[in-house]
Amino acid sequence: MSFAWSAAVLESSLPMRTVKKAKLLRLHFGESDQYKGRPLYEAIVTRCKELQIAGATVFRGLEGYGGTAEIHRHHAIKKDQPIVVTIIDTEENLSRLLPEVESMMDTGMIATSDVEYVRIQKTVDGAANPPA
């Protein structure tokens, strides 16, 4: 068995991997924050989808605080756990989104980072699919 043949067999059994440079946006605010009568995190994810942003995920924290030093946590009467929305896409696409998100938020924090993302895509049988 030649080295070239075995390398080709090994490579064909690995998932399709795509590595790209991107921006990561993290939005920090409280669960009780609203935008036009609905939860802020819901409104942001909906807007991301409308703008065809690559991806957005909402995380609920157990406890936290920010600039106001007010502790955000779950209470029996009031739910105000910390929320973090992570959004990843190209710098160009996030620059379209950022002004809209800023206008939707009354309080909170926005953090951006340069990242590399790895997209892995497999079929059911484990063979690689070409990226869409």
Features:
single chain, Alpha-Beta Plaits, four-stranded antiparallel sheet, two-stranded antiparallel ribbon, 132 residues, alpha+beta, 3 helices, 27% helix
Task: Describe the structure in brief.
The chain is of the alpha+beta class. It has helices spanning 3-13, 40-50, 91-104; strands at 16-30, 34-35, 38-39, 55-60, 63-64, 72-73, 82-89, 109-121. It is globular.
> In sequence order, what are the helices and strands, one letter per element?
HEEEHEEEEHE
CATH-defined architecture: 2-Layer Sandwich
- Report the radius of gyration as a whole number of Å: 20 Å
Q: Averaged pLDDT, please? A: 83
- Supply the number of structural domains: 1
CATH topology heading: Alpha-Beta Plaits
Distance between the termini: 34 Å
Total count of strands: 8
**Class, according to the CATH hierarchy?**
Alpha Beta
Instruction: Work out the strand percent.
Output: 35-45%
* Uncertain stretches of 5 or more adjacent residues: 5-10
Number of DSSP helices? 3
* Class based on secondary structure composition and strand pairing: alpha+beta
Helicity level, as a percent range? 25-40%
Mind describing the biggest β-sheet?
Answer: 4 strands, antiparallel
**In order across it, which strands form the biggest sheet?**
4-7-1-8
**Coarse shape:** globular
Quaternary structure: single chain
